[in-house]
Design brief:
Four Helix Bundle (Hemerythrin (Met), subunit A), 0% strand, mainly alpha, globular, disordered C terminus, 6 helices, 156 residues
Length: 156
């Protein structure tokens, strides 16, 4: 079964752009953070720590795949931010902090919005039209707190 899951994941990511892969990892991290928060809310500490660990792995993956030569200042800023978020996840997991997990989740959502903006800038007009219609039908992740100003603006 494990081999089947790996094969599915490989097929699922084949043909995806680099930006789509990055967004997929962000979605995974955000979902794991939400699941960790919900687990802690329901007094399921062991389950919450497992989800924190999975979110942490997603962020470590984002960190280790940064291209420091091409990305320069932006990559360095993201590296520092990812290291900070990993530390915060470890803290949240240790003390089972629902509020801290919300903050991390909001930070990840804000950074993800920057990547989504970068993706939209790189689309052709036909791709933009398809993307806009896809967004209308998708259930997008919504940050937990309106007006959250954390995160890093990413420009092309």
């Amino acid at each position: 079964m494990n081999t089947g899951c790996k094969a599915y994941r490989n097929v699922n990511t084949m043909g995806m752009s680099q930006l789509d892969l990055i967004l997929t990892v962000y979605n995974g991290a955000i979902n794991f953070l939400r699941q960790a928060r919900e687990s802690f809310e329901n007094s399921k500490s062991d389950e919450g720590r497992i989800y924190c660990s999975r979110a942490r792995k997603c962020i470590v993956h984002l960190y280790t795949t940064l291209d420091m030569e091409k990305g320069r200042d932006v990559a360095e800023s993201l590296a520092r931010l990812y290291a900070f978020l990993v530390e915060r996840i470890d803290q949240a997991s240790a003390i089972k902090s629902i509020e801290l997990l919300k903050e991390i989740e909001n930070s990840m959502a804000t950074i993800k919005q920057g990547w989504e903006g970068l993706k939209k800038k790189s689309l052709t007009p036909a791709e933009k039209q398809k993307s806009d219609s896809d967004e209308e039908s998708d259930e997008e992740y919504q940050p937990l707190a309106a007006g959250h100003s954390g995160g890093l603006a990413i420009s092309a």
